[in-house]
Design a protein that fits this description.
The protein has helices at about 1-10, 15-25, 65-80, 95-100, and strands at about 25-35, 35-45, 50-60, 85-90. It is of the alpha+beta class and about 110 residues long. It has a four-stranded mixed beta sheet with strand order 1-2-3-4, sandwiched between helices. A hairpin with a 2-residue loop joins strand 1 and strand 2 (about 35-45). It starts with a helix and ends in a 15-residue tail after the last helix.
Length: about 110
C-alpha cells in the first residue's frame, strides 16, 4: 500500500488506510492463495447524493488480472448486502483495463500555487 500510494498518488496515505480499517470505517479485503497474499483492496461504503456506493480506496497486488474477477465477485456480494448500487474507483488511466464496463464520471486536475 505504501509503494502504491507514493507511486500513483492518493488523497489518503497508507497510514490513513490502516486507521480506517482498524476503526471499522473501511474494509480490508485480502486475496490469498496457497502461497500467501496475492493482493488487497480497501473498500468503503459511501453515501453519495442519490445513492449508496462501494468506494475503492486502494487496490494493490501482483498479477491483478488473475485474481481480480474472484475479488470482484466477493466485493459485489458485500456491496449488495450494504445497499450499494455501484462501485466507484479513482486512480490512474489503467482502470478501464481492469473494469471494462466502467464509465468515466469525472476528471481531477491539480494546479501548483
Amino acid at each position: 500500500m505504501i509503494k502504491a500510494t507514493l507511486k500513483y498518488g492518493s488523497n489518503v496515505s497508507s497510514g490513513d488506510l490502516w486507521q480506517m480499517c482498524r476503526a471499522g470505517d473501511a474494509f480490508l479485503v485480502a486475496v490469498m492463495d496457497d502461497h500467501g497474499v496475492k493482493g488487497a483492496l480497501i473498500m468503503q461504503f459511501q453515501r453519495w447524493a442519490l445513492k449508496q456506493v462501494m468506494y475503492c480506496l486502494a487496490i494493490v497486488g501482483e498479477d491483478i488480472q488473475e485474481w481480480l474477477p474472484a475479488a470482484r465477485d466477493f466485493i459485489t456480494g458485500m456491496a449488495k448486502a450494504g445497499g450499494a448500487d455501484s462501485f466507484i474507483a479513482e486512480g490512474r488511466e489503467g482502470w478501464p483495463a481492469l473494469f471494462p464496463d466502467a464509465k468515466k464520471l469525472r476528471i481531477t486536475y491539480e494546479v501548483q500555487i
